[in-house]
Design goal:
The chain is α/β, with parallel strands linked by helices. Helices cover 57% and strands 10% of the residues. The chain contains ten helices and ten strands. The protein has a six-stranded antiparallel beta barrel with strand order 1-2-5-4-3-6. Helix 3 crosses helix 4. About 2% of the residues have low confidence.
Amino acid sequence: MAVRSDSGLGLKVALVLFVFTTVAMLILCIVFYRSSLKEHEARVKAENSLEVYIEPREEGMDVYQRYRASAQAQAQSVAGYLHSQLQGAMQFFEGDPTLDVESAKAKFASLDVQPNEVVRLEFEDARRDLSARQAEVESLKVQLSSMDDEIAELEARLADADQGRQDEVDAIMAQISGYETQVEDYRRRLDDTVAELNLARERNANRYEGTIEELEGENDDLNQELVLMKGRVDELENILNNNRLRPQRPDELVDGRVIDSAGANDTVFIDRGRRNRIALGMTFEVYASPESIGIDAVNGQLSRGKASLQVIRVSETTATCKITRFNVSQPVVRNDVIANAVYDPEYKFKFLVHGKFDVDQNGVPSEAEAEFIRGQILEWGGDVIISETLPGDLDFLVLGVEPPMPPDLPPGATEQQISDWLRKREAHENYRRLFDQARDAQIPVLNANRFLVLTGYSGR
Protein backbone atom coordinates (compact mmCIF):
# COMPACT_ATOMS: atom_id res chain seq x y z
CA MET A 1 0.00 0.00 0.00
CA ALA A 2 2.83 2.23 0.91
CA VAL A 3 4.57 1.66 -2.38
CA ARG A 4 1.47 2.55 -4.32
CA SER A 5 1.14 5.68 -2.27
CA ASP A 6 4.67 6.81 -3.14
CA SER A 7 4.22 6.01 -6.80
CA GLY A 8 1.00 7.95 -7.04
CA LEU A 9 2.50 10.81 -5.22
CA GLY A 10 5.42 10.97 -7.56
CA LEU A 11 3.10 10.78 -10.47
CA LYS A 12 1.10 13.58 -9.09
CA VAL A 13 4.20 15.56 -8.43
CA ALA A 14 5.40 14.90 -11.93
CA LEU A 15 2.03 15.79 -13.29
CA VAL A 16 1.99 18.97 -11.27
CA LEU A 17 5.48 19.81 -12.46
CA PHE A 18 4.46 19.07 -16.02
CA VAL A 19 1.47 21.29 -15.66
CA PHE A 20 3.60 24.04 -14.19
CA THR A 21 6.20 23.55 -16.84
CA THR A 22 3.57 23.59 -19.55
CA VAL A 23 2.02 26.70 -18.09
CA ALA A 24 5.43 28.28 -17.78
CA MET A 25 6.24 27.34 -21.36
CA LEU A 26 2.89 28.70 -22.45
CA ILE A 27 3.54 31.86 -20.56
CA LEU A 28 7.00 32.11 -22.05
CA CYS A 29 5.56 31.43 -25.48
CA ILE A 30 3.01 34.13 -24.95
CA VAL A 31 5.69 36.49 -23.69
CA PHE A 32 8.01 35.65 -26.60
CA TYR A 33 5.18 35.93 -29.09
CA ARG A 34 4.15 39.27 -27.76
CA SER A 35 7.78 40.37 -27.84
CA SER A 36 8.18 39.02 -31.37
CA LEU A 37 4.94 40.69 -32.40
CA LYS A 38 6.17 44.00 -31.01
CA GLU A 39 9.48 43.58 -32.80
CA HIS A 40 7.67 42.74 -36.03
CA GLU A 41 5.43 45.75 -35.65
CA ALA A 42 8.46 47.89 -34.86
CA ARG A 43 10.28 46.45 -37.87
CA VAL A 44 7.29 47.03 -40.13
CA LYS A 45 6.97 50.53 -38.75
CA ALA A 46 10.68 51.10 -39.22
CA GLU A 47 10.55 49.76 -42.77
CA ASN A 48 7.54 51.96 -43.51
CA SER A 49 9.35 54.93 -42.03
CA LEU A 50 12.47 54.08 -44.06
CA GLU A 51 10.44 53.83 -47.28
CA VAL A 52 9.57 57.48 -46.81
CA TYR A 53 13.27 58.25 -47.40
CA ILE A 54 14.30 55.32 -49.62
CA GLU A 55 12.59 52.34 -51.14
CA PRO A 56 14.10 48.86 -50.76
CA ARG A 57 14.77 48.62 -54.52
CA GLU A 58 16.77 51.84 -54.36
CA GLU A 59 19.08 50.75 -51.54
CA GLY A 60 21.28 48.74 -53.85
CA MET A 61 21.73 51.52 -56.44
CA ASP A 62 25.27 52.90 -56.85
CA VAL A 63 24.21 56.47 -56.49
CA TYR A 64 22.64 55.86 -53.08
CA GLN A 65 25.66 53.84 -52.05
CA ARG A 66 27.81 56.86 -52.90
CA TYR A 67 25.46 59.08 -50.92
CA ARG A 68 25.80 56.68 -47.96
CA ALA A 69 29.60 56.58 -48.19
CA SER A 70 29.80 60.38 -48.43
CA ALA A 71 27.43 60.74 -45.45
CA GLN A 72 29.48 58.30 -43.39
CA ALA A 73 32.68 60.14 -44.33
CA GLN A 74 31.15 63.35 -42.96
CA ALA A 75 29.57 61.58 -39.95
CA GLN A 76 26.11 62.43 -41.21
CA SER A 77 23.01 60.55 -42.03
CA VAL A 78 22.19 60.18 -45.68
CA ALA A 79 19.19 62.49 -45.25
CA GLY A 80 21.30 65.03 -43.39
CA TYR A 81 23.98 64.78 -46.07
CA LEU A 82 21.45 65.26 -48.89
CA HIS A 83 19.82 68.15 -47.01
CA SER A 84 23.17 69.86 -46.52
CA GLN A 85 23.93 69.34 -50.23
CA LEU A 86 20.56 70.85 -51.21
CA GLN A 87 21.10 73.81 -48.90
CA GLY A 88 24.59 74.33 -50.30
CA ALA A 89 23.24 74.22 -53.87
CA MET A 90 20.44 76.69 -53.08
CA GLN A 91 22.91 78.94 -51.25
CA PHE A 92 25.24 78.78 -54.29
CA PHE A 93 22.55 79.44 -56.92
CA GLU A 94 20.13 81.73 -55.10
CA GLY A 95 21.77 82.76 -51.80
CA ASP A 96 18.85 81.25 -49.89
CA PRO A 97 19.52 77.79 -48.32
CA THR A 98 15.84 77.35 -47.45
CA LEU A 99 14.74 77.55 -51.12
CA ASP A 100 13.46 74.36 -52.78
CA VAL A 101 14.13 73.25 -56.35
CA GLU A 102 10.74 74.27 -57.76
CA SER A 103 11.04 77.74 -56.29
CA ALA A 104 14.54 78.00 -57.74
CA LYS A 105 13.23 76.90 -61.16
CA ALA A 106 10.49 79.51 -60.95
CA LYS A 107 13.05 82.21 -60.20
CA PHE A 108 15.33 81.02 -63.02
CA ALA A 109 12.31 81.04 -65.35
CA SER A 110 12.08 84.81 -64.78
CA LEU A 111 15.63 84.94 -66.20
CA ASP A 112 14.47 83.07 -69.34
CA VAL A 113 15.94 79.75 -68.12
CA GLN A 114 13.38 77.02 -68.81
CA PRO A 115 12.88 74.12 -66.28
CA ASN A 116 14.22 71.57 -68.80
CA GLU A 117 17.40 73.57 -69.51
CA VAL A 118 20.79 73.33 -67.81
CA VAL A 119 21.66 76.38 -65.75
CA ARG A 120 25.40 75.97 -66.34
CA LEU A 121 24.96 75.86 -70.12
CA GLU A 122 22.71 78.89 -70.01
CA PHE A 123 25.27 80.63 -67.82
CA GLU A 124 28.05 79.76 -70.28
CA ASP A 125 25.95 81.08 -73.17
CA ALA A 126 25.27 84.24 -71.21
CA ARG A 127 29.00 84.61 -70.47
CA ARG A 128 29.84 84.20 -74.14
CA ASP A 129 27.16 86.72 -75.12
CA LEU A 130 28.43 89.09 -72.47
CA SER A 131 32.00 88.74 -73.72
CA ALA A 132 30.86 89.38 -77.29
CA ARG A 133 28.82 92.38 -76.17
CA GLN A 134 31.78 93.71 -74.19
CA ALA A 135 34.02 93.34 -77.24
CA GLU A 136 31.39 95.12 -79.33
CA VAL A 137 31.12 97.85 -76.69
CA GLU A 138 34.90 98.32 -76.74
CA SER A 139 34.84 98.54 -80.55
CA LEU A 140 32.00 101.06 -80.39
CA LYS A 141 33.94 103.03 -77.80
CA VAL A 142 36.90 103.21 -80.18
CA GLN A 143 34.58 104.28 -83.02
CA LEU A 144 32.91 106.80 -80.73
CA SER A 145 36.29 108.23 -79.79
CA SER A 146 37.18 108.53 -83.48
CA MET A 147 33.81 110.14 -84.22
CA ASP A 148 34.34 112.56 -81.33
CA ASP A 149 37.69 113.56 -82.84
CA GLU A 150 36.07 114.04 -86.27
CA ILE A 151 33.23 116.04 -84.71
CA ALA A 152 35.73 118.21 -82.87
CA GLU A 153 37.66 118.80 -86.10
CA LEU A 154 34.46 119.59 -88.04
CA GLU A 155 33.28 121.91 -85.27
CA ALA A 156 36.62 123.72 -85.41
CA ARG A 157 36.39 124.04 -89.20
CA LEU A 158 32.76 125.16 -88.92
CA ALA A 159 33.73 127.74 -86.33
CA ASP A 160 36.48 129.05 -88.63
CA ALA A 161 34.05 129.14 -91.57
CA ASP A 162 31.41 130.89 -89.45
CA GLN A 163 33.98 133.41 -88.30
CA GLY A 164 35.13 134.05 -91.88
CA ARG A 165 31.55 134.39 -93.06
CA GLN A 166 30.74 136.66 -90.14
CA ASP A 167 33.76 138.82 -90.99
CA GLU A 168 32.55 139.10 -94.59
CA VAL A 169 29.00 139.86 -93.45
CA ASP A 170 30.33 142.47 -91.02
CA ALA A 171 32.35 144.08 -93.81
CA ILE A 172 29.33 144.15 -96.13
CA MET A 173 27.09 145.42 -93.34
CA ALA A 174 29.66 148.12 -92.58
CA GLN A 175 29.66 149.06 -96.27
CA ILE A 176 25.86 149.07 -96.33
CA SER A 177 25.87 151.13 -93.14
CA GLY A 178 28.13 153.62 -94.90
CA TYR A 179 25.71 153.72 -97.82
CA GLU A 180 22.82 154.22 -95.44
CA THR A 181 24.68 157.05 -93.74
CA GLN A 182 25.34 158.69 -97.11
CA VAL A 183 21.72 158.19 -98.16
CA GLU A 184 20.50 159.70 -94.92
CA ASP A 185 22.89 162.61 -95.42
CA TYR A 186 21.69 163.11 -99.00
CA ARG A 187 18.08 162.86 -97.87
CA ARG A 188 18.68 165.38 -95.10
CA ARG A 189 20.42 167.76 -97.48
CA LEU A 190 17.66 167.27 -100.04
CA ASP A 191 15.01 167.95 -97.42
CA ASP A 192 16.89 171.08 -96.36
CA THR A 193 17.19 172.22 -99.97
CA VAL A 194 13.51 171.54 -100.65
CA ALA A 195 12.58 173.37 -97.49
CA GLU A 196 14.72 176.34 -98.52
CA LEU A 197 13.23 176.31 -102.01
CA ASN A 198 9.71 176.15 -100.62
CA LEU A 199 10.50 178.95 -98.24
CA ALA A 200 11.99 181.06 -101.03
CA ARG A 201 9.04 180.28 -103.27
CA GLU A 202 6.58 181.27 -100.60
CA ARG A 203 8.60 184.39 -99.82
CA ASN A 204 8.76 185.47 -103.44
CA ALA A 205 5.38 184.15 -104.59
CA ASN A 206 3.56 187.43 -104.24
CA ARG A 207 6.55 189.48 -105.35
CA TYR A 208 7.10 187.59 -108.58
CA GLU A 209 3.60 186.32 -109.26
CA GLY A 210 3.25 188.22 -112.49
CA THR A 211 6.75 187.29 -113.59
CA ILE A 212 6.04 183.64 -112.83
CA GLU A 213 2.93 183.65 -114.98
CA GLU A 214 4.87 185.25 -117.81
CA LEU A 215 7.71 182.77 -117.45
CA GLU A 216 5.27 179.86 -117.32
CA GLY A 217 3.81 181.02 -120.60
CA GLU A 218 7.27 181.25 -122.09
CA ASN A 219 8.06 177.84 -120.66
CA ASP A 220 4.99 176.36 -122.35
CA ASP A 221 6.06 177.89 -125.63
CA LEU A 222 9.56 176.55 -125.18
CA ASN A 223 8.20 173.10 -124.36
CA GLN A 224 6.16 173.10 -127.55
CA GLU A 225 9.20 174.24 -129.50
CA LEU A 226 11.26 171.56 -127.75
CA VAL A 227 8.78 168.89 -128.84
CA LEU A 228 9.00 170.14 -132.41
CA MET A 229 12.79 170.25 -132.24
CA LYS A 230 12.94 166.72 -130.83
CA GLY A 231 10.82 165.57 -133.73
CA ARG A 232 13.20 167.31 -136.13
CA VAL A 233 16.19 165.78 -134.34
CA ASP A 234 14.67 162.30 -134.52
CA GLU A 235 13.93 162.85 -138.21
CA LEU A 236 17.48 164.03 -138.84
CA GLU A 237 18.91 161.10 -136.86
CA ASN A 238 16.87 158.70 -138.98
CA ILE A 239 18.16 160.39 -142.12
CA LEU A 240 21.70 160.24 -140.74
CA ASN A 241 21.35 156.55 -139.85
CA ASN A 242 19.93 155.76 -143.29
CA ASN A 243 22.84 157.55 -144.92
CA ARG A 244 25.52 156.33 -142.50
CA LEU A 245 26.43 153.31 -144.65
CA ARG A 246 26.86 155.33 -147.84
CA PRO A 247 30.06 154.93 -149.85
CA GLN A 248 31.59 158.12 -148.50
CA ARG A 249 32.17 156.46 -145.04
CA PRO A 250 35.25 154.18 -144.71
CA ASP A 251 33.31 151.19 -143.39
CA GLU A 252 30.96 151.27 -146.39
CA LEU A 253 33.40 151.66 -149.28
CA VAL A 254 33.51 148.96 -151.92
CA ASP A 255 36.38 146.59 -151.11
CA GLY A 256 36.66 144.89 -154.51
CA ARG A 257 34.91 143.41 -157.51
CA VAL A 258 34.08 140.02 -158.95
CA ILE A 259 36.33 139.47 -161.98
CA ASP A 260 34.86 136.12 -163.03
CA SER A 261 31.41 134.61 -162.53
CA ALA A 262 30.63 131.38 -160.71
CA GLY A 263 31.81 128.12 -162.18
CA ALA A 264 30.42 124.64 -161.87
CA ASN A 265 31.74 124.35 -158.32
CA ASP A 266 30.20 127.66 -157.10
CA THR A 267 33.50 129.56 -157.01
CA VAL A 268 34.29 133.10 -158.15
CA PHE A 269 37.42 135.21 -158.44
CA ILE A 270 37.87 138.67 -156.93
CA ASP A 271 40.42 141.38 -157.76
CA ARG A 272 42.01 141.36 -154.31
CA GLY A 273 44.90 139.11 -153.24
CA ARG A 274 47.84 138.72 -150.91
CA ARG A 275 49.14 142.14 -151.91
CA ASN A 276 45.85 143.60 -150.62
CA ARG A 277 46.09 141.76 -147.24
CA ILE A 278 43.50 139.14 -148.17
CA ALA A 279 43.64 136.08 -145.88
CA LEU A 280 42.07 132.63 -146.02
CA GLY A 281 38.66 132.49 -144.38
CA MET A 282 37.73 136.13 -144.96
CA THR A 283 34.12 136.69 -145.93
CA PHE A 284 32.49 139.32 -148.15
CA GLU A 285 28.99 140.37 -149.07
CA VAL A 286 28.21 140.65 -152.81
CA TYR A 287 26.15 143.60 -154.10
CA ALA A 288 25.04 144.46 -157.62
CA SER A 289 26.30 148.05 -157.23
CA PRO A 290 27.76 150.35 -154.57
CA GLU A 291 24.39 152.06 -154.16
CA SER A 292 22.79 148.82 -152.98
CA ILE A 293 24.95 148.81 -149.84
CA GLY A 294 22.72 150.40 -147.21
CA ILE A 295 20.11 149.94 -144.48
CA ASP A 296 16.76 148.32 -145.02
CA ALA A 297 14.19 151.12 -144.94
CA VAL A 298 11.50 148.81 -143.56
CA ASN A 299 13.15 147.24 -140.50
CA GLY A 300 16.20 149.45 -140.05
CA GLN A 301 18.54 146.46 -140.23
CA LEU A 302 21.57 146.20 -142.47
CA SER A 303 20.42 144.80 -145.79
CA ARG A 304 22.37 141.73 -146.79
CA GLY A 305 23.91 141.40 -150.20
CA LYS A 306 22.60 139.07 -152.83
CA ALA A 307 25.30 136.51 -151.92
CA SER A 308 28.08 135.78 -149.43
CA LEU A 309 31.64 134.75 -150.28
CA GLN A 310 34.41 133.05 -148.34
CA VAL A 311 38.06 133.15 -149.43
CA ILE A 312 39.42 129.63 -150.04
CA ARG A 313 42.58 130.38 -152.04
CA VAL A 314 44.81 133.46 -152.18
CA SER A 315 47.14 134.52 -155.00
CA GLU A 316 49.31 137.61 -155.25
CA THR A 317 46.69 139.89 -156.85
CA THR A 318 43.54 137.74 -156.91
CA ALA A 319 41.68 135.33 -154.65
CA THR A 320 39.34 132.41 -155.17
CA CYS A 321 36.10 132.52 -153.16
CA LYS A 322 33.37 129.99 -152.55
CA ILE A 323 29.76 131.12 -152.64
CA THR A 324 28.37 130.25 -149.20
CA ARG A 325 24.99 131.93 -149.69
CA PHE A 326 23.21 132.93 -152.86
CA ASN A 327 19.87 133.96 -154.33
CA VAL A 328 18.75 132.00 -157.39
CA SER A 329 17.00 135.04 -158.84
CA GLN A 330 20.14 137.19 -158.40
CA PRO A 331 23.22 135.21 -159.48
CA VAL A 332 26.76 136.45 -158.89
CA VAL A 333 28.10 137.96 -162.11
CA ARG A 334 31.22 139.74 -163.26
CA ASN A 335 31.72 143.31 -161.93
CA ASP A 336 29.55 142.73 -158.86
CA VAL A 337 31.01 144.67 -155.92
CA ILE A 338 32.10 143.08 -152.63
CA ALA A 339 32.23 144.66 -149.16
CA ASN A 340 33.44 143.80 -145.67
CA ALA A 341 33.14 146.34 -142.86
CA VAL A 342 36.31 145.15 -141.18
CA TYR A 343 38.53 144.68 -144.20
CA ASP A 344 40.46 147.59 -145.60
CA PRO A 345 43.86 147.23 -147.25
CA GLU A 346 45.12 150.52 -145.81
CA TYR A 347 43.11 151.03 -142.62
CA LYS A 348 42.46 148.89 -139.56
CA PHE A 349 39.11 149.51 -137.92
CA LYS A 350 39.06 149.56 -134.13
CA PHE A 351 36.34 147.53 -132.40
CA LEU A 352 35.33 147.45 -128.74
CA VAL A 353 33.49 144.19 -127.96
CA HIS A 354 31.46 144.25 -124.74
CA GLY A 355 29.12 141.78 -123.03
CA LYS A 356 28.02 138.21 -123.71
CA PHE A 357 26.80 137.17 -127.17
CA ASP A 358 24.26 134.69 -128.52
CA VAL A 359 25.71 134.03 -131.97
CA ASP A 360 24.08 130.62 -132.33
CA GLN A 361 20.73 132.10 -131.14
CA ASN A 362 20.07 129.34 -128.62
CA GLY A 363 18.89 131.81 -125.99
CA VAL A 364 22.04 131.37 -123.84
CA PRO A 365 24.54 134.26 -124.19
CA SER A 366 28.11 133.31 -123.30
CA GLU A 367 31.60 134.77 -123.05
CA ALA A 368 32.84 132.10 -125.47
CA GLU A 369 30.67 133.58 -128.22
CA ALA A 370 32.09 137.03 -127.40
CA GLU A 371 35.56 135.54 -127.95
CA PHE A 372 34.29 134.24 -131.30
CA ILE A 373 33.35 137.80 -132.33
CA ARG A 374 36.80 139.05 -131.27
CA GLY A 375 38.41 136.23 -133.24
CA GLN A 376 36.44 137.18 -136.36
CA ILE A 377 37.63 140.78 -136.06
CA LEU A 378 41.27 139.75 -135.67
CA GLU A 379 40.98 137.23 -138.50
CA TRP A 380 39.67 139.91 -140.84
CA GLY A 381 42.45 142.34 -139.93
CA GLY A 382 40.66 144.58 -137.43
CA ASP A 383 41.90 145.69 -134.01
CA VAL A 384 40.12 144.66 -130.80
CA ILE A 385 40.24 147.33 -128.10
CA ILE A 386 40.20 146.20 -124.46
CA SER A 387 38.71 149.00 -122.38
CA GLU A 388 35.91 149.78 -119.94
CA THR A 389 35.36 153.19 -121.57
CA LEU A 390 35.10 154.35 -125.17
CA PRO A 391 38.42 155.57 -126.61
CA GLY A 392 38.31 158.64 -128.82
CA ASP A 393 39.52 156.83 -131.97
CA LEU A 394 37.02 153.94 -131.78
CA ASP A 395 35.29 152.99 -135.04
CA PHE A 396 32.67 150.45 -133.87
CA LEU A 397 31.10 149.36 -130.59
CA VAL A 398 29.89 145.75 -130.74
CA LEU A 399 27.45 145.01 -127.91
CA GLY A 400 26.17 141.62 -126.82
CA VAL A 401 22.82 140.79 -125.26
CA GLU A 402 21.73 143.51 -122.83
CA PRO A 403 21.83 142.24 -119.21
CA PRO A 404 18.45 142.82 -117.54
CA MET A 405 18.16 145.04 -114.50
CA PRO A 406 17.77 142.68 -111.51
CA PRO A 407 14.61 143.01 -109.39
CA ASP A 408 14.76 144.45 -105.89
CA LEU A 409 16.32 142.28 -103.21
CA PRO A 410 13.88 140.42 -100.94
CA PRO A 411 13.85 141.23 -97.21
CA GLY A 412 16.57 139.38 -95.32
CA ALA A 413 18.64 138.67 -98.45
CA THR A 414 21.71 136.49 -97.95
CA GLU A 415 25.28 137.55 -98.62
CA GLN A 416 25.33 135.55 -101.86
CA GLN A 417 22.08 137.14 -103.05
CA ILE A 418 23.44 140.62 -102.33
CA SER A 419 26.68 139.83 -104.20
CA ASP A 420 24.78 138.46 -107.23
CA TRP A 421 22.44 141.46 -107.24
CA LEU A 422 25.34 143.94 -107.19
CA ARG A 423 27.12 142.06 -109.99
CA LYS A 424 24.00 141.99 -112.22
CA ARG A 425 23.24 145.67 -111.60
CA GLU A 426 26.83 146.64 -112.42
CA ALA A 427 26.70 144.63 -115.68
CA HIS A 428 23.44 146.37 -116.68
CA GLU A 429 24.76 149.83 -115.82
CA ASN A 430 28.04 149.28 -117.70
CA TYR A 431 26.13 148.12 -120.78
CA ARG A 432 23.83 151.17 -120.75
CA ARG A 433 26.74 153.53 -120.04
CA LEU A 434 28.73 152.30 -123.07
CA PHE A 435 25.64 152.43 -125.28
CA ASP A 436 24.82 156.00 -124.22
CA GLN A 437 28.44 157.12 -124.68
CA ALA A 438 28.57 155.62 -128.19
CA ARG A 439 25.24 157.22 -129.11
CA ASP A 440 26.38 160.62 -127.86
CA ALA A 441 29.69 160.27 -129.74
CA GLN A 442 27.87 159.03 -132.88
CA ILE A 443 29.94 155.83 -132.90
CA PRO A 444 28.16 153.02 -134.80
CA VAL A 445 26.76 150.38 -132.45
CA LEU A 446 26.48 146.83 -133.79
CA ASN A 447 24.90 143.76 -132.29
CA ALA A 448 26.07 140.28 -133.25
CA ASN A 449 23.60 139.95 -136.13
CA ARG A 450 24.47 143.31 -137.66
CA PHE A 451 28.18 142.64 -137.29
CA LEU A 452 27.99 139.25 -139.00
CA VAL A 453 25.79 140.59 -141.81
CA LEU A 454 28.08 143.56 -142.37
CA THR A 455 31.19 141.35 -142.52
CA GLY A 456 29.55 138.77 -144.79
CA TYR A 457 29.67 135.89 -142.29
CA SER A 458 27.24 133.11 -143.34
CA GLY A 459 27.64 130.60 -140.51
CA ARG A 460 30.37 128.36 -141.95
